[in-house]
Specification:
By secondary structure, the protein is mostly beta strands. The chain contains 1 helix and 14 strands, in the order αββββββββββββββ. It has a single domain, classed as Immunoglobulin-like. Strands 1, 4, 5, 8, 10, 11 and 13 form a 7-stranded antiparallel beta sheet that branches. Strands 12-9-14 form a 3-stranded antiparallel beta sheet, with no helix packed on it. A two-stranded antiparallel ribbon has the order 2-7.
Length: 177
Amino acid sequence: MSKHARLTKLSFAALALAMTAAAGSAVAAQATATSTSTVVTPISITAPVNLSFGSFAAGATGGTVTLTPGGARTAGGGVTLAGGTAGAARFDVSGSASLTYSIVFSGAATLSDGSNTMAFTRISDTSASAITSGDVATGTLSSGGAQSIFVGGVLTVSANQPAGTYAGSVTATVEYN
């Protein structure tokens, strides 16, 4: 084989290899995406203020004691308010700024002195409002990552409800949405 033929064969081989490499890069492309994540502050809740309906007297007819989330107390029917310190419960929620969360309440629907009961209907809000019915189901943490939930309620007092100290509980559970 002549020197020229060998050079031509070598040139064709190099050209074929170059075309193969060029053809492969023309139909393939590559990109890289970065992956990030953010771990948020765990949500937490405390109950620094308990719910108290104060003192009242039951009459010959039944009635109610209503305590708003803002702490305003009123009596209806045969009930007479008789002093004592009344105030709504306050739950303080904290977590990551501006995130929303769900609120689920549980606890007894009655207050009891061990022998006698009074029906309890919860009233809640994320502000110390004057509402007299309803429950809040969601909240949004502030830019500082905090919010309070206020809980009042309505006690249904029977006619001649026996005197005593009645107790129950309200539990609030929060979870990020």
